[in-house]
């Protein structure tokens, strides 16, 4: 049984449709042919994520997301932690003339795609990542929540 949890550190993000998001993330994993164990999404400030970026990656700049694959080598199921800066989400939404919630979903899906094995270091990888994000953003709108 897979688990997806949302946590906050030093922010209060506006995050709606949590049940739909959780089910859709499981759907992404199934479409990508991956097995999901656990994902913890941690929403935080720029300063918190900057500190993590410096500590773990030796990068001294703001970022919108850090994804950590914590999977055990003994299993095929994927476990991870995804840290998201709400400050970056708000600023990037304004820069790209998009809504906060749309940018937040894009970054959530971006982290999920990283856990599924997608990279974004080269231009070719970035293009594929953006195509996948756009595809899943469109799919999310039509996705129906399963009720039990």
Summarize it:
With 148 residues, this protein is of the alpha/beta class.
Walk me through what this model shows.
By secondary structure, this protein is an alpha/beta fold. Helix content is 49%, strand content 20%. The protein is built from five helices and four strands, in the order E-H-E-H-E-E-H-H-H. It has a four-stranded mixed sheet with strand order 1-2-4-3, sandwiched between helices. Helix 1 (18-31) links the parallel strand 1 and strand 2 (35-44). Helix 3 packs across helix 4. The longest helix has 20 residues, at 123-142. The radius of gyration is 15 Å and the shape is globular.
Most strands sheet: 4 strands, mixed
C-alpha Rg (nearest Å): 15 Å
Average pLDDT reading: 94
> Could you give the order of strands across the largest sheet?
1-2-4-3
Uncertain spans = none
Q: Label the structural class.
A: alpha/beta
The CATH first-level class comes to Alpha Beta
CATH topology-level fold name:
Collagenase (Catalytic Domain)
Number of domains: 1
Q: Give me the count of strands.
A: 4
Q: Supply the CATH architecture.
A: 3-Layer(aba) Sandwich
What percent of residues adopt helix (DSSP H or I)?
Answer: 40-55%
Distance between the termini: 15 Å
What percent strand?
15-25%
What does the overall shape look like? globular
Order of helices and strands: EHEHEEHHH
User: Helix count?
Assistant: 5
Would you identify the CATH H-level superfamily?
A: Metalloproteases ("zincins"), catalytic domain
Helices and strands in order, then pairings?
Blueprint: E1 3-8, H1 18-31, E2 35-44, H2 46-57, E3 65-69, E4 77-85, H3 86-95, H4 100-115, H5 123-142
Parallel strand pairs: 1-2, 2-4
Antiparallel strand pairs: 3-4
């Amino acid at each position: 049984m897979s688990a997806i949890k949302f946590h906050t550190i030093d922010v209060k993000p506006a995050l709606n449709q949590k049940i739909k998001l959780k089910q859709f993330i499981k759907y992404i994993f199934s479409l990508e042919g991956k097995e999901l164990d656990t994902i913890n999404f941690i929403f935080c400030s720029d300063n918190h994520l900057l500190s993590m970026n410096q500590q773990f990656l030796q990068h001294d700049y703001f970022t919108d997301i850090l994804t950590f694959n914590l999977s055990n080598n003994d299993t095929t199921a994927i476990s991870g932690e995804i840290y998201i800066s709400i400050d970056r989400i708000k600023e990037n939404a304004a820069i790209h003339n998009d809504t906060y919630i749309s940018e937040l979903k894009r970054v959530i899906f971006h982290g999920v795609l990283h856990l599924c094995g997608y990279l974004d270091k080269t231009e070719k990888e970035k293009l594929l990542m953006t195509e996948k994000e756009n595809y899943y953003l469109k799919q999310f709108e039509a996705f129906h929540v399963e009720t039990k």
